[in-house]
Each structure stands twice: as C-alpha cells, then as structure tokens.
Design a protein that fits this description.
seven-stranded antiparallel sheet; 10 helices; elongated; 22 strands; alpha+beta
Length: 455
C-alpha cells in the first residue's frame, strides 16, 4: 500500500515537473519582439512603467516583486529596474538576454552613435529616452534611461538656458542663488560659507588672488546627458570677486564619439550663432559665441573625451572702447582719472571693490578673457586722490582680436603714436585724449595694458 501511494506521489511530482518544463519550453527563443517602434522604445512587457515611478507603481505595472521581473514570453530574458538612491524612484532599466542585441536594436532603430570604446547608444530627443549596450556583457544586456538632450537642457535658440526656467543664475548673489536652487547646489552647505568668507577676505586683505580662493559651487542636475551613464559630476557655478555668478560650466561626455561631437557643434551654432573658432594651448578646439545686446557669451571647448560648455556674462570690448562713450574706457566714472576713491565709489557702488588698500572697479571679463576685468585705481603713497587708472584687456589665443582692439583705440583717440622711449620691437603707443588725459597702451603676451593718467 505504501508503495502504491509512493508511486502516485512520484507520478504526480513527475507530472508537475513536466508541466513546468512545458511552460518553460513555451517561451520563445526569438528575441525580435523585444524591441518595437521606429526609435528607442521600452520592451512591451515593461512598457507600462514610467521613469520616476515608485516601487509600488512598478510592481503594479509589471506584476513582479522587487526590482526584478522575468519575461513571461521570451526565453532567458529578464528586466532589472533600478531606483534612485535618495528618492527611491525608477532611474534605469536593464534588459538581460543570452544573445547579442545590437543587430536587433539597429534593425529597429537605425545605426547607433558609438563611443571610442565601442559602446553603442540610441537616442530619442523627442521623448528624452535613450538605450545603450553594456560592454561587460558582450552586448547581451541593454540599458534604458531618461536623458537631457541638448535642446531640453539648453533651449533652442538664444543665450537663455532652458533648465534654469527663469530662476536667478548668471549675475545672482550667493543668497539669491541658494534661495532659487536649494539642494541642486549640492555642496552649498560646505562651500557656500567658504565662498562668502573668501569675498570678505578679498576685500579686507590685498595680499591674495581671487582664483586661489574658493569660488566654485557644484550644480547637481537631475538627468544624465550624452553618453554619461550617470548624472554629471562636473557642472559648476563660478562666483566672481563681487560675490555674484559670473558663469556656469556644463559637462557633456563624449568618450570619443565623433558623431556626437558633430551634433553638438551643429546645435551650439544654431542656438548661439556664428562662433569665433580658436585653438587653445593644448590644441583643443574652442568655439566662442557672443551676444553684445545682452552681454552674454558661451564658450564650448571640445576634446575627444568631453565638451565643456561655459555660459556667462562678459564686457564687450567694442562697448568698452566705443568712440562715442564718455571716458577712454566707457566704464570710467566722471571722476576718473584724478578723483578720490570715495568719490568713485559713490559714482559706481555696484562695481567698486576694495582689495585691502587697493581700490578698483570690477566688471565681467572682456571678450576673450577668462578672468574678470579689473580697473585699478592708481594713487601715490598716502595721496588722497587717484592719478590714473589701469586695465588689462586679454585676447588669449586670438591675435586678430588684439589687432581689432588697436583699431578701436585709434577710432576713439586718433592715429596711434609709437612711444619714443619704447624699444623697436615693443608695441607701446601713446595718445592725448580729449580733456588732456594721457593714454598709454602696450601690447604684450596676448594682452593690452592700458593706462589713463592725468595730464
């Protein structure tokens, strides 16, 4: 009797295992149904999930538990759904199979953009979704995530930045910046007070350079971009010595993807206008874009690995040396040269900056300069009044801009006269401006050193 029940039991077990094998065998080995649509599209079995979903919403949409879902129809296919660390919301989907996926994805969505390391990426800027293949899985695992396209991040045309959505950014004070961006300034609690202290120290102590002090904040935006698998780490906000944002830098990873670099070039030209193309000291290409009307500029620096896009404010040299502007430099107040620092501060409190015992006016950088424009107010030891003001106008990596600056000086002041005391190869020129001020301009090392003094 016991043998009879054992036989039935084994038979039943065998029948159950056979059923499982039959169900497993029913899964298709043909992976072509995995990818649909004419552009990046989630596999049908997980098409109801949305990036940003909570764990509960994911489980409701997939019928699975946790972050793992096994395919019900395709053999050896599974889905891993990864959540963000802090908010616990869907950030990335991994699709694992036992077969290479690039032929299927290319047939469905077209040729990918391939990095220098051989990683293929497919992008859909309309939906903001992308897919790529893992190098470590021999192409049998695909990942999907949201991303910021050039247009969604920056906007289609002009120097306004779409991601800012009208929030204070370029030109904002530290307090305005923090109030508007909050946790997006991801190291503000530590670095913000350091920068505020640096501004105060710079004004009280003449012995120190601004670029040696803390002056950059990290900007942590939500989505990855280009071929960066994670949210970018290198985005920064640059604070000037007046305690305001001078520019921001955004990082676009390329990893040697030449087609992506070409797309970026075309986009930047369409958004910002015709660039001045330069080559820096490392042979990297730079594209400089200007909008004199808003006094905003963009600089895109290209290497094989990445693009650094810097957007900020500037002081146009053409405005600074405008022929019809009052003063040799248009930023000079009516007391310059010759007024007291107190009088000049009263005339322009916005730009007046006391660097210890050294008074100056500070403005955004000129066209091809990286550092702010500092107009130094010169005075003799213990003299109550200034006797001159000085400024250095850089034309880094652009001798043509240096030639144009001399032309602007001549249009304003007349034909340049070579300083008789200068050496034959020394480009030093002098003028006498209206009102009797003496002007000296010396060109050296990709810069013009200009001094305006009392008669």
């Amino acid at each position: 009797m016991r043998s009879f029940w054992l036989f039935l039991s084994l038979a039943a077990c065998g029948s159950g295992n056979e059923g499982k094998r039959e169900r497993a065998a029913a899964k298709s080995k043909d992976l072509s149904p995995l990818f649909t649509g004419s552009t990046v599209t989630l596999p049908p079995e997980i098409a109801n999930v949305r990036f940003g979903d909570t764990q509960e919403q994911i489980e409701k949409a997939t019928g699975g538990h946790g972050g793992y879902v096994d395919s019900k129809t395709l053999d050896k296919v599974s889905y891993q759904l990864d959540l963000t660390h802090a908010e616990k919301k869907l950030e990335k989907i991994n699709v694992s199979t036992g077969l290479p996926l690039q032929p299927l994805m290319t047939k469905q969505w077209g040729s990918p953009i391939v990095t220098g390391k051989g990683v293929p990426f497919w992008f859909d800027p309309k939906t903001g979704m992308r897919a790529w293949l893992s190098r470590t899985s021999a192409g049998t695992s695909a990942s999907f995530s949201r991303y910021d396209s050039f247009e969604s991040l920056l906007g289609p045309t002009g120097f306004a930045l779409a991601f800012a959505q009208g929030k204070p950014l370029i030109g904002a004070t530290l307090d305005e910046l923090h109030a508007a961006w909050g946790s997006k300034l991801c190291d503000f609690d530590k670095t913000g007070p350091q920068i505020a202290k640096a501004v105060d120290e710079y004004r009280s102590d003449w012995n120190g350079l601004w670029h040696d002090k803390p002056h950059r904040l990290r900007l942590c935006l939500s989505l990855p971009r280009t071929v960066d698998e994670f949210t970018p780490f290198g985005d920064e906000v640059d604070i000037g010595r007046m305690g305001k944002v001078e520019d921001i830098t955004l990082v676009f990873k390329l990893d040697g993807a030449k087609e992506l670099a070409a797309q970026a070039t075309a986009f930047f030209d369409a958004k910002f206008g015709t660039p001045t193309v330069l080559t820096d000291s490392t042979k990297a290409q730079e594209r400089w874009y200007f909008d004199p009307a808003t006094q905003l500029r963009a600089i895109a620096r290209f290497t094989d690995d990445m693009i650094l896009l810097e957007v900020g404010r500037y002081t146009p040299v053409a405005t600074l040396l405008a022929a019809d502007a009052q003063g040799v430099l248009s930023v000079a107040t009516k007391s310059m040269p010759g007024g007291t620092p107190a009088a000049i501060q009263k005339e322009d409190p916005t730009h007046y900056n006391q660097h210890g015992t050294l008074p100056a006016l500070v403005f955004p950088a000129t066209d091809f300069a990286r550092q702010e424009l500092e107009v130094q107010l010169e005075s003799w030891d213990k003299a109550p009044t200034t006797h001159a003001y000085r400024a250095v106008l850089f034309h880094t990596n652009n001798e043509t801009a240096g030639d144009a600056l001399l032309s602007l000086l001549e249009a304003k002041l007349g034909k340049a006269k070579k300083d008789p005391a200068a050496k034959p190869d020394d480009e030093t020129f002098t003028w006498t401006a209206k009102g009797g001020a003496k002007v000296s301009a010396r060109r050296v090392s990709q810069q013009w050193q200009i001094e305006v003094s009392k008669e």
